[in-house]
Structure formats: C-alpha cells, structure tokens
What we know:
The protein is of the alpha+beta class. The chain is about 40% helix and about 10% strand. The chain has 32 helices and 18 strands. The strands form seven sheets. The chain has a four-stranded antiparallel β-sheet with strand order 2-9-4-7, with no helix packed on it. The protein has a four-stranded antiparallel β-sheet with strand order 3-8-5-6, with no helix packed on it. Strands 1-10 form a two-stranded antiparallel ribbon. A hairpin with a 2-residue loop joins strand 5 and strand 6.
Amino acid sequence: MSLRVLKRACAATLLCVLGGAGAYGQEHSGSGTALPESSTPGAGAATEANWAFLEKYCTKCHNTTDWAGSIAFDTMSPDTIADEAATWEKAVRKLRGRLMPPPGNPQPDGHALQTFVSWMENNLDRAALGHPDPGRVGLHRLNRKEYANAIRDLLNVEVDATELLPRDDARDGFDNVATALQVSPAFVDQYLAAARAVAIKALGNPGARPVGTTYTADSGSQFFRGPGLPLGTRGGIAVVHDFPADGEYVINIANMAQAIWVYNMEFENHLVVTLDRRKIYETTLGGEEDMKAIDQKQDPAVDAINARLKNIKFTTTAGPHEIAVTFRHRTFSESEDRLQSHVPGGGQDRVLRVSSFEVRGPLKASGVSETPSRERIFSCYPEHPQDEEPCARQILTRLTERAFRRPVREEDVSDLMQFYRAGHQQGGFEEGIRQGLTALLVDPEFLYRANVPPGDLQPGSAFRISDLELASRLSFFLWSSVPDAQLLEVAEHGKLHEPEVLAAQVRRMLADRRSQTLASNFAFQWLNMAKLEEIVPDGVVFPNLNGDIREDFKEELKLFVDSVFRENRSVLDLLRADYTFLNERLALHYGIRDVRGPHFRRVQLKDSVRFGLLGKGAVLMVSSYPNRTAPVLRGQFILDRIWGTPPAAPPPNVQALKENQAHEKPRTVRELMALHASNPSCNSCHGILDPLGLALENFDAVGQYRERDRFAGSDIDASGVLPDGTKLNGPDDLRNALLARPEQFVQNLTEKLMTYALGRSLEYTDMPTVRAIVRRAAADDYRFQTLVMSIVSSDAFQMQRSAAPDVKQAALPAQARER
C-alpha cells in the first residue's frame, strides 16, 4: 500500500514540475534600478576609449594567437557585447578583483579600470533589460538542516538529522542547491527509517526497551562553570535527553579514579547530578580518606571509588529533560604547584573532570505522560471508540496542511487515513496516528518543493510563482524551515506578493529567533566554517590552549553575524564593527582580561585589529594550517569569500612550501614564501594573494595576536603592496583597503545570499539583477533588510522559467554554443 501511495504522490509532483509555462510578466522588472538611456554599445567616444583600454591591457594575452583562458578579445567588438555576455561577466569579475592584468604586467590606474568596468557593466545591464531570465529551480529536496527544522516546527520535537540522514552534497558552497540534492534508492530507505524514528520520538513509546545513550565532554580543562550548568559549579556536562516513556532510568558516569597512577585525588571533589535543575544524586571523590584507602588497598579502593559513579537510579516522565553531571566549585585560590599554570585564567589544580556519562533505560516503563510534542500533535483525543476516526482525521488534516505548505485536499487526507486504519488494527488509536504520521513524513510533498507552472503556457517561458510557493521559498530562505500559520494564511488569501504585505512579513520573520539560521547556516557556509572541524591545532606548537577553542570561535561568529543581520545594520559592519561576543575563555585567548564567566556577552573592542570578520578567531583558524599560518590560504579566503573574485587554481605541478627543518635556523613564514615565490611564473598568483594574507600575519594559526615569531625569534613583518599600489601593514590597513570599495564586498554577499535564497547556482544572466540590488542598497547604507527585501522582490525570487528541452543551450547565443 505504501508504495502505491508514494508512487502516486511522486507522479503528481513530477507532472506538475514538467507541465507547461507561459509569457513573462512584464509588469515586474528584475533590474530594480533603471539604467540611463543610451545609444547602441558601439557608438560614441566613450566606447572608443574603453575599447582602447581593452586593447592596451588585455589583448596581449587574450588573442587569436595565444588564446589565454580560451578567450580572444580581438575577435569581439562593442556591437556584440550582449551576445558575449557570459565572457564579459567573467572579464569584469577578474578586473574587479585586480586579478587581471596579472602582477608583473603593466597595470592600469584605478580610475581607468573603474571607468571600463562601469561602462561594460552598464552595457551588460542594459542588454539584459530586453532579455530577462528569472532562472529555473527544479524539484527541490529538503536538506538535513531544513528537515530537522521542519520537524521541530511541525511536531515540536528536536532531532539530530546527521544521525538520521546521509550527508548532503554542496554546490557553490551551499548544501541547499537543488541540483546537488539528488536521491538514490538507499536515500529513500533512510528517509523512511528517519520518519519512523521521528514518529516514535514524537509520540513516545510505552513499550520501549532499555537502551543506552552516551554523552561526551569536549576536550580541555573543566576549571570553570560550563554553559547550562548551575551557579556555583565547575566543569561537567549538561544535556537535554529525550526519554521515550515514563519510568526508571539509570546514569553511569565514566571512571575518574584510574589504576596504577591515581591522579588528582589529593583533594575532595564534590560531584552533583541534577535532573531539570533538581539534585538527584551527590557524592565525594578524593580527599584524605580516599587517598589513604588507595595507598593501603590499591585496586579494590579504586574500584570502590568508581562504583560511586555507577548505577545512579532515578525516575522521570517521558519527553525532553535536562540532565547535568558537574562538580561543586571548590575555590578560586591560586595554584599550589611550584610553577604558575600557563593556561589563561587557571589557578585550580588537582581537580577531576567528567569525560562522559551514559543514560540507560527505561528499566521499568509505566506509560507516556504529556510531552511538548504530544501536546502539539493531539489537538483532540477520543474518549469513545466512535470518536477515534474523526479525531484522527482532524489531527492528520491539520498536520498535513503545515507539512505540505498549502491547503489540504480530500485525497491528501484519504491516503493518510489508510495508513491510520492499518495501524489502528495493529495497536489502536495511537498506533494508527503513528503510522499516519510516518506516511506524512515520507510524502514527496513534504520532502520536496516544486514551483508549478500554469498549464496554458509554452515550455521554456517564465511565470510568476503562486503566493503559497512564494511563502515556502521565503520561509526556507529566512528560517530554513516550513512557513508558520500566519505566513500561510496571508499566502492563502493571495496577498503575499503585494509589496507592502511582503515587506511586513519579511520584517516579522527577520525579528523571529528562527532567522538566526541566516547566521548559523547561511553565514557558516559562506565563510566555510565546516572546514574548522578538520583543523585541530598542533598540541606541540600550541601547548597552552585552554581546551577546544573552536566551539567558542563558532559561537562568537554566529552571535556577531546575527547581530548585524537581525539589528538591520549595514552589512559593511561585518568588516568594521568595533564589538564582538565573548565568554571568559575566549576573551583570555584574545588577551582581554575583564570578561568573567562561561556565557557569551557583547563586548566593546578596544583594539582595532579585532574589528570585523578579519579579527575573528574562526576566520583566522579556518584559513591556517594546524601548526602555522598560511598567508596564501588567507589571501585566497579574502579573494573568494570576502571579495567574490576567486583566484585561479594553482598548476598541478606546483611545489609545496618548504617547511623549516630541524637542523636549520628557523625562518619566518614570509621568508619561506619569498623563496617559494621567487619563480616568475608563481608571482602572477602570489603577487595578489601574498599581500592580503601577510597583512594578517600578526595573528597566529589559532587567532592569537603576536608581535614576534617565537620560533624564528624575529619581529612579524605584515607589510605588502596590492596590485593597484595600495600599501598594507597589518589588519587595519587591509580592512581599510577592503572598505575603500564597499560595493565589491556587498556584491559578493548579495551573490551568496541569492544563491542561498533561490537554491540554485547563479548564472551570468543573474548579474544585472545582483548589481541592481547593490545599487539600491547603497542608498540605504547597505542595510541588511534592504538587501533581503530587494532579493525577495526580484524576478529571480518571484518568478521561474518552466522546463524545456535544452533550455539552457537554446538560450545561449550562437557564438557561445560553438565554443
């Protein structure tokens, strides 16, 4: 039965996607800002002057003899700019990043270069007005983050999608691009298994068998109170555990007394276990009595100490509850060691730490109490048998409307009711609801989004998406989740596309806490924070790190970016803001001594080198190696992630940087790079990358500021010269150089936001829209809400091109197809 239902749903979805299309709505212009009228691109003295610029600086390499980059500008003319738009967009990007002409070649002055870029972009934008193309997004599957958020908003239950579903592929740096979210038969099986697991977790399981879940602490010391732990405690672990049923459970804590060498038992460690902030167990480890027993009894004494950490029984109700295992804070007195601790903020020593604990159960299940997810699901509960099916229909109808993101049709609920009846025969009302819910969570209309073209339009034409489809696109953009009831209601009344209504909804959604996904999801992917998991600082080079600082880096970055976005600040503040968010450990890592406690709070920065993204430890570490800085990686990060002008890939036979050898006098990274880049063929890239990366050389590989290279024993030299002649000497100069051309950073951010918002890669045909959005935002100091509103008001967001055979190939000019 399930296969028939799923096949029918899939077939309906695919038929909608592959249907016809119609004429382009001319009343809505994607350009955003009108361009000045002009004659044809080939007319006028300005055209001659700008074409002379091209011949002077570009045709030396890009000609029919050399064909550098497979481009020959001497075969082109001003009259064919519109036909060669793809090539010209690439050229403009290279020029904006000063990647061309390469360093070592004659360079144009800044005014001449900007004049040519503006002239070319104006011609490209003007040509696009006559051939608008909103692009196309095919069948769009929910990725893991969207799936978890949708489950949370639909059922009020938190799930870890990384444990349920396979990893999503990424394209252009984002894991929500539709063409990358392909599905294999194995993937379908995992979605079905995930739906079953989610349904069980949401409803509870009175017949649950005992299982164990282990929670592990981050590496590092536990001298201070951890996040979520009670006041007056230090170290430990706090978690929210989802209990499947009411009943008895047991906690087992990892051993703290180790045989042979029994460390850190000199003083008493008072361990406390809490459930929802209420103490359920307490014991003492270490101290005079335990030391005496260890000395006299040895292994039996060690076993007896560890036995205090095992089989800690308690009873609780079903649903999410907070469990904490921690220690009472002993003292803030100075260390009793002969040498002072190198760990900033240290002082305590001879203390134990909680490495992990296990929650096992239920040992004795006694039913399922009311939980947040059951309260969300059961909008009714039958008192008599005759009430069961009407109540089930009401529950499934309400959940389906939210899951499908549209009004429910009778056939939608009828299909689910078949699953309900099958489950009811097996185990009664709740088992029927469980099976109906499982079927809902694997329905293609929940797992996929599709923009359905009107049936009377020609294939390959553009059409305006419906208000309901606009609501889904908007909510997955701003929340990475399904629309809420208010957004759906506005869309159902056909009002969402109205500019005033749309603007009001955008403001409301950005003010909602769910929009924090723009920082934790969009910004983290834009800035490649996933790579941070691969970089583990070398313990030999950095022996004094206070635990794994990477989680603090990520929290700082998330809170900082979120403040810029949700406070509707200028996005230029991402580069120049004079504040950040710190806890005590991260503040001490940065050399800031007046922040106390484990919670993050807004801190005004006194040292300008920490301003903006380029002063954040996450950015500095993700562009380094585990044991040293990497100016080339930092330069590449700036060009690609900040500037939007990625450099060419290095040649395949390029040699790696020669590292310092044990038998040689250590050199600074700058000196090692000078030896590496002495080859003229290398300078074409290093001449651009090195000055950018070396400007950040005062920051080491873990983001700490330094004046001297402690291995080479010499002062840090952070000076450099950009291809346009701008001199740099440290982070402040680099930031000022980037802010001197604000539109370049904003254009890159806009491109990334549009890719994320649309769920597709941007094409050269999208660039006129991007530039129009940047021009509009400039009038409002590049405020974030202005960028967002311009994106959601654009044709690319509100319209789509329907499917057509070889539509992309057919849209290209003849010259481009031949190449």
